[in-house]
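Forgive a beginner's question, but would it be possible to get a protein, spelled out as residues, together with the matching structure tokens, please?
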Amino acid sequence: MRILLEKFTKKFGNLTVIDEMDLEVRDGEMLALLGGSGCGKSTTLFAICGIHKVNSGRIMFGDRDVTNITSQERNVGVVFQSFALYPHMTVEDNIGFPLKIRKESKAEIRRKVDEIAEMMHIEPFLKRRPGELSGGQQQRVALARALIRRPDVLLLDEPLANLDATLRLEMRSEIRRIQQETGITAILVTHDQVEAMSMCDRIAIMDAGKIVQICPPREMYTNPVSDYVAGFLGSPPIAFLSGQIQDGNFVEPSTGTKMPVTAAIATSHAGREVRVGIRPEYFQPDGATKIKGVVSFIEAQGRETLYDVTLPDGNILRSIQGAHSPVNIGDEVEWGVNTEHMLVFDQDGRRI
């Protein structure tokens, strides 16, 4: 089911949260709405499912205009981070509740519950109550309840936020597997860039009620349109340095290090102040363009180690390495930047 938002506007009193947003979610894809708190991603989701009334614009499900119809009439499945299960009901009754509201027969409800329970791997828990389940099991039940009605659209609002790290990893792959098996169109709202990148076909980055970039995860990581987008994706995060373009190079002011830029940037921004973004994988001991700094932080993460290197002016470059370097905090190092992968932004944060 294709979802289309045209000139979607949402206000709360005099505050405009979303202003004339256009968004298309393709049939059968999983799209992430990613952004910081207050950017409008949950507001968008609630408008799609009918919880929020649209002030102007329209929402289309396929060729059907659903802008002014109720949530019940839209046939959407919604999973919240709180699970929102009925504690006095068994798992079986929780899952089958949407079908009971539709007044389907007991035999049909039981058949569909058994079918979805098998898909979700929760058959042994059908007679239990939610309080007797782990967080991951409860989330599977909530997902089963959303899917049993065979919705046209699945909406996921921070569905993994209340789970521990191991369960989040497990449920990321499970939700993606089920979405692909069913072919349902899904929208995931999250502030977790790892969830967005690992689960979704495309990501829409939101800021202040607007979509600033929408594309597949890898493309967004390697080709961000702004320093905001570049800073939102990547763990550990990208490091930024400010300096000037001179004689075909970005010149880092505290060390005088010259980092070559493209001919187009050298020409268009000669003598101008810019910011460069350097991701940790492109700042390594064997990098070509050397820059001196002092190791100020080391964090062993198992097979990888993260280093912070502080430059004379206090700016920090980050490096993530597969093998532990024989350095200690306080050591001066001269590691190198792979300038071919350096991202350059103008003073307004736009990618050059």
Observations:
- The chain has a mean pLDDT of 93.
- The first strand starts at residue 3 and ends at 12.
- The two ends are 37 Å apart (CA to CA).
